[in-house]
Design brief:
This protein is an alpha+beta fold. The protein has helices at residues 4-19, 26-34, 38-52, 65-70, 74-80, 126-140, 173-180, 184-203, 257-261, 267-283, 294-303, 312-316, 334-343, 355-366, and strands spanning 85-93, 97-105, 110-118, 150-155, 161-166, 170-172, 206-207, 216-219, 224-226, 233-234.
Length: 372
């Protein structure tokens, strides 16, 4: 097949066709559609696994690259770019706006950035504009090697605010682990770097509220970068140390029970999401992927009945193709089960009191010392 873009578009078409079939019929059709093209088959398997997991960070890509391009004409692209920025390629789209790969050139600095723009069309609601600007203030307060930093912010000639962020050339955390076939130790060491970034944010009274592998890109050097503080919230005296979810903005598969219930949020919310991420890095699935409906999964999150990572394959029964090659269950010791389950306890006060406490237990395990 030709370019990687053509292969990706072909993979999307195959995935759309496979999703119309019963799960049992998909393997034969996949083999027939891909033939001997191993690269195409790998692309299809990855997109299909994401679709079957209802991964909202990946599913919008299945709308097709061409569909995205049809949304924009060349004149419109140029008119939406703030001064000194040239839009190159749309990277993604969220509830409030779009993220573009762009080049910044103000005469003294030339660099590629991830440029976040409020959505085009009708003027944004006052609440959207305020949240967008709040994200900029949050990013401006964060300076950590494992957090994508803010490069620039301002208001374009059209009156719309923009944020220019560090452009991270990397792959999602779960895919990185899959590609590198990391050992248990390797996965934990990588996860500890993510913990360091979240701990840093918490120390500055910022909770992320949407931690998931798609928001953590790993560079070629093996450094994870935490992205997308779009629904992050500052903890301050106004909310008594707790943040309330004004909008029901979250990724359900990584959401805490209190997010599902619409209750006030705190740092324990991010700790729960970290627990889900660690569970996935170890087992290849998330704690409730084996349940069939969104309603069942939401009820399970709220109930707090989690199968230990070492026994996750029994709960899943092989129903889901893991996105990450799991660590063999015999290699997941009781201490790791205990650490993950503590992070995933139903009530926030029963979890780790801080990310540093979670990280400390993981370091004790890596040092072959007792986990208390």
């Amino acid at each position: 097949m030709g370019s990687s873009g053509e292969r990706y578009q072909r993979a999307q078409a195959i995935v759309h066709a496979l999703l119309e079939l019963p799960p049992a019929a998909r393997p034969a059709q996949l083999a027939d559609a891909c033939g001997t093209d191993a690269a195409l088959r790998e692309e299809v398997q990855w997109l299909l696994a994401a679709a079957e997991r209802d991964d909202d960070a990946t599913l919008p890509q299945l709308q097709g690259v061409e569909a995205l391009r049809r949304d924009l004409g060349a004149a419109q692209v140029g008119s939406n770019a703030p001064r000194h920025y040239r839009l190159i390629e749309r990277l993604g789209e969220g509830g409030m706006g779009q993220v573009w790969l762009a080049e910044r050139d103000d005469g003294s600095v030339r660099q590629r950035v991830a440029l976040k723009l409020l959505r085009t069309g009708a003027a944004p609601a006052a609440g959207e504009r305020a949240r967008f600007m709040a994200e900029g203030r949050i990013l401006a307060a964060l300076n950590h090697p494992n957090i994508a930093h803010l490069v620039d912010a301002g208001v374009g000639d059209d009156g719309m605010p923009f944020l220019a962020m560090e452009c991270v050339d990397g792959v999602a955390l779960d895919r990185w682990c899959a590609q590198r076939e990391l050992t248990l130790r390797g996965r934990i060491e990588l996860f500890l770097k993510v913990c360091a970034a979240v701990e840093y944010a918490h120390a500055r009274l910022v909770i992320h509220r949407d931690l998931k592998p798609a928001n953590i890109l790993v560079t070629a050097a093996g450094e994870p970068k935490l992205l997308d503080f779009g629904i992050a919230r500052l903890l301050d005296a106004e909310v008594g140390g707790n943040a309330t979810t004004v909008l029901n903005a979250m990724t359900r598969a990584y959401a805490s029970p209190e997010q599902i219930r619409g209750e006030p949020l705190g740092t324990a919310t991010d700790i729960y999401s970290l627990g889900v991420i660690l569970y996935q890095l170890l087992t290849g699935v998330r704690p409730f992927d084996h349940l069939r409906t969104e309603h069942e999964r939401a009820n399970a999150i709220v109930s707090g009945q989690v199968t230990p990572p070492s026994r996750s394959h029994r709960a899943d029964g092989g129903a889901h193709e893991p996105a990450v090659a799991p660590v063999p269950s015999r290699n997941i010791p009781a201490d790791i089960d205990a650490i993950v389950l503590k992070a995933l306890r139903r009530e926030p006060e029963q979890r780790y009191t801080s990310v540093s406490e979670l990280a400390q237990d993981l370091r004790l395990f890596l040092a072959a010392r007792p986990v208390l």
